[in-house]
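pasting for the record
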Amino acid sequence: MKTPFIAVAASLIGCVFLPQTTSVYNADCHVQEQHMTLELQQIASFGRCANQGCAALLVAAGAVTASSAVVSGSIVVGGNVVYWLERRGNCAR
């Protein structure tokens, strides 16, 4: 049980979730449509650590990754709602 947790934690070390916006031209409505997604970005990796120091780093890295997922996920959901409303207002089919 401990090994899968360590593998997941190690893969997320120094990672944050960032909102990314993509644009696509909709020829039917003659508008530029935008859509937001979450991208996982690695910002650092930990080299050597031992015992309690390693555990503390893993906990801190996990907290940062989880926090960035919540904040960035909220931004993505809000942004996609705004883009959806904008698309409905600009394209009356």
